[in-house]
UniProtKB/TrEMBL annotation:
<dbReference type="InterPro" id="IPR051157">
    <property type="entry name" value="PDH/Transketolase"/>
</dbReference>
<dbReference type="InterPro" id="IPR009014">
    <property type="entry name" value="Transketo_C/PFOR_II"/>
</dbReference>
<dbReference type="InterPro" id="IPR005475">
    <property type="entry name" value="Transketolase-like_Pyr-bd"/>
</dbReference>
<feature type="domain" description="Transketolase-like pyrimidine-binding">
    <location>
        <begin position="10"/>
        <end position="175"/>
    </location>
</feature>
<dbReference type="Pfam" id="PF02779">
    <property type="entry name" value="Transket_pyr"/>
</dbReference>
<dbReference type="GO" id="GO:0000287">
    <property type="term" value="F:magnesium ion binding"/>
</dbReference>
<dbReference type="InterPro" id="IPR029061">
    <property type="entry name" value="THDP-binding"/>
</dbReference>
<protein>
    <submittedName>
        <fullName>Transketolase subunit B</fullName>
    </submittedName>
</protein>
Amino acid sequence: MTTLATAPALDLRTRFYEELDPLLDAHPDVDVVLAVIGSGYMARAIERHPGRVIDVGIREQALIGVAGGLALAGRRPIVHTFASFLVERPYEQVKLDLGHQDVGAVLVSAGASYDVSAGGRTHQSPADVALISALPGWTVHVPGHADEVAEILHREAAGTGRVYVRLSGQRNSRPRPVDGRLHLVRDGGGAPGVPLVLAVGPMLDTVLEATADLPVRVAWTATPHPLDADGLRALAGPAPVLAVVEPYLEGTSAAAVAAALVDRPSRVLHVGVPGETELRRYGTPRDHAAAHGLDAAGVRRRVTSLLG
């Protein structure tokens, strides 16, 4: 994969902040819109690009409204805050001020499902990808490495579409291609009919650890929506046995997977944050991953149950 610059192994959110200054240099039509969160990390971008980093205060509905107005004026807004404040709280504005107006923006979240576990339920948003995917015309990227964040940002800053980029505190050890496709990472010996485990974004290293000695192939994507249906069909084979491991609400990708495999007899397991119960605990992100079965041990249990 070609990345835009050689950089230290940063976490995803830090790489986003460090990339903003060169991004604003390279794309004169881009503005950054904030609701306080993140402003303390953008001093260089604010100093070098006066008027192009706009902080609306703790007003998340206005955050999206301002982005919609900028887009209508021909600007390319990059909008940033925690996922629960970027997607859930101003969802009507995302639907109307961007979608209904048919204008583009790049929404970049932090916090993911439970990264800010100490902040409580107000700062957790496992349903964000499902909500965005329910609106027409959106692309969702879930990168798993800081270099992927940089590549996605520069590509989408030069575009015109509606894009959601979900940043997580979890990350993989190396970058992978972020071209929207599914990529085979482990071939399971290459035998036909070997079950397939599809890891989304930062879940790849966990899936590789969980399935190290299991008879499965492992694939990966950073773009779960729209899903690479042709790639899934090619990898899944004529009678798929498939597990989809996603770091957000379990079953978010179910409709897209079902549509891709509609003409094939298949057994499909979706592994993610369970939606039927709510974990009323603080703890650490690692605690939450274990409680939801999204650590290596939990993923292994679920995949083993699929294998029977």
